[in-house]
Amino acid sequence: MSAARPLTTLRTIAVIAALPLLLTACGYGSESTDDGKQTAVAAGAKKLSADEVKIGYFPNLTHATALVGVQEGLFQKELGGTKIEPSTFNAGPSEIEALNAGSIDIGWIGPSPAINGYTKSNGKNLRIIGGSASGGVKLVVNPKKIKSLADVKGKKIATPQLGNTQDVAFLNWVADRGWKVDAQSGKGDVSVVRSDNKVTPDAYKSGSIDGAWVPEPTASKLVAEGGKVLLDESSLWPDKKFVITNIIVSQKFLKAHPDVVEAVLRGSVKTNAWINAHPDKAKASANAALEQLSGKALPADVIDPAWKSITFLDDPLTATLNTEAEHAVKAGLLENPGLKGIYDLTLLNKVLKTDGKDEVDDAGLGAE
Question: In degrees rounded to 5, what are phi and psi of residue 187?
Fold first, then answer.
């Protein structure tokens, strides 16, 4: 991996016809849904400066901090009489649109849509205020067709979407091996097939793809269909950590209700601590939340390996977000996005310090 370094201006490549696809999340569509979760507000509990806080997240394991925090009432406990209004999203653009429109105040989201949302608004609409998860991305292949990393050349490999976090990571990995691929068409020494995560397992079963660079639980679904993990993306990063989920907030809400934002961050920190202290209970809680949202829980042969590959943490791993943006530039999908000011970790560090934990660094990309 290249070392992180400051980036300067933003201009998306003009030849990308479908701008909303650029740097989107690894989600399953573009609709948002009120998740129907009724938060229990204790009788007589004191409200903070807002009556409610609207939070958004994906029904994905990489967003388990939000899933578990809502499911177990850990956020509501910190918010007192301020009620949580949760909504779920299936893709980054719709969550960013909701944040910009005021439909949500705080959201859990992947690095690429956070970068895109920040730069498209010229740094005016959001801030990243905390981390949530690392890892959970794998290259899974058909072992009958691909037996080594060298065998990937000439094969058809799926990624979730043009320019999304996993697409950029795979294009960067291909380039590091000296292979050539046109980022827009996906044609070259490897055929990059953009495939929605919900249909990728069927594409694998039909033989129309030979493998996929995908997040969990899609990766483990492919393994359950006979696929083999050829590479875990975490092995490519220093300390085997890279950001997969961040916490964002609208700058307007942050300015108006810092006490509410701080309470949500306390809930996130306490949720991550509970997840790490009780991994089996947390996994069951996340699966129960997924079942409520989708109508179907993940089977053990999918959720067990998927859960083990994700690390839940408070550190937003700022340097890795910078590096991921550099990879998008290298792939020809961005021209030097300016990320200065994308982070405001003041409240997170206040919470961490109060809990006796180490503060985290903004890698020089903090708000002034």
Answer: -95, 145
Closest CA to 51 of 189, 248, 256: 256
Taking residue 12's Cβ as centre, other Cβ atoms within 10 Å add up to 18
3-state secondary structure labels for all residues of the chain:
CCCCCCCCCCEECCCCCCHHHCCCCCCCCCCEEECCCCCCCCCCCCCCCCCEEEEEECCCHHHHHHHHHHHCCHHHHHHCCCEEEEEEECCHHHHHHHHHHCCCCEEEECHHHHHHHHHHCCCCCEEEEEEEEEECEEEEECCCCCCCHHHHCCCEEEECCCCCHHHHHHHHHHHHCCCCECCCCCCECCEEEECCCCCHHHHHHHCCCCEEEEECCHHHHHHHCCCEEEEEHHHHCHHHCCEEEEEEEEHHHHHHCHHHHHHHHHHHHHHHHHHHHCHHHHHHHHHHHHHHHHCCCCCHHHHHHHHHCEEECCCCCHHHHHHHHHHHHHCCCEECCCCCCCECCHHHHHHHHHCCCCCCCCCCCECC
pLDDT digits (tens, 9 = 90+) for 142-171: 999 999 999 999 999 999 988 888 999 999
- Average of per-residue pLDDT values in the chain: 88
Name which of 11-20, 91-100, 144-153 the model is least confident about.
11-20
Token pair recorded at residue 312: 């839940």
Cβ-in-10-Å burial (0-12, 13-18, 19+) of 277 comes to exposed
Confidence of residue 6 (pLDDT cuts 50, 70, 90): very low
pLDDT of residue 33: 55
Which value, in Å, is the radius of gyration of the alpha carbons in the chain?
20
- Tell me the whole-structure pTM to 2 decimals: 0.84
Residue type, 55: I
Question: For 314-320, what is the mean pLDDT?
Answer: 96
